[in-house]
Design goal:
The chain is an alpha/beta fold. Helices cover 26% and strands 26% of the residues. The protein contains five helices and seven strands; from the N terminus they run H-E-H-E-H-E-H-E-H-E-E-E. A seven-stranded mixed beta sheet has the order 3-2-1-4-5-7-6, with helices on both faces. The chain is globular, with a radius of gyration of 15 Å. The N and C termini lie far apart (37 Å).
């Protein structure tokens, strides 16, 4: 795992994830996604939520690019511990809130609203198709906010009312959902 841009550009991390239920986004796919985001957002102004945060791959990338309000949510204790240790190593504890929780419970209980939400659930998660509805039912996105869901080709969100576009990087697809200011 490598941070591709920003103040930590080039830093590599080797999570002990051999038996973890995580699937870190490939550098190729992550770089493609962040090329899109670079043209849409000023990272310093974003309030970010990283759901199914796993190794913290996206969390570190946002903080490296200047985001100062990032929330990471995952229930896998070894992953949460790894992210805590990495946050200490990078000295980013002040920019990062780590929530060790089931993502669906977090979505139901939080009253926070975010500019950008990323969800990288396990592809085999039986409830993966419900995630966009949950995000919008609970009003987690601010007006003009983006929700990005990473999934494989077995899922199609093109008919979702908030769907805007999809980007395909091999077997990794990012479906992008949007909330307009008029919604």
């Amino acid at each position: 795992m490598r941070i591709i841009s920003g103040k930590f550009k080039g830093r590599r991390f080797h999570p002990p994830a051999d038996n973890w239920p995580t699937r870190p986004t490939t550098d190729f796919a992550k770089e493609g996604l962040f090329n899109i985001l670079n043209n849409q957002f000023d990272f310093e102004d974003l309030k970010v939520l990283d759901l199914f945060g796993g190794t913290g791959n996206h969390t570190y990338e946002f903080i490296s690019r200047g985001s100062t309000d990032v929330t990471y949510v995952d229930k896998h204790t070894p992953a949460v511990d790894f992210v805590r240790k990495t946050a200490q190593l990078l000295k980013i504890e002040a920019q990062l809130r780590i929530i060790p929780s089931d993502v669906f419970r977090f979505i139901e209980k939080t009253s926070e609203k975010y500019d950008y939400i990323f969800a990288g659930p396990p592809y085999g998660l039986g409830t993966l198709d419900t995630i966009p509805d949950k995000i919008f039912e609970h009003g987690l996105l601010k007006p003009e906010g983006w929700f990005v869901l990473e999934h494989n080709p077995h899922h199609d969100f093109t008919k979702h009312p908030h769907f805007q576009m999809a980007r395909n990087y091999g077997k990794t697809i990012f479906s992008i959902f949007y909330v307009s200011a008029n919604t």
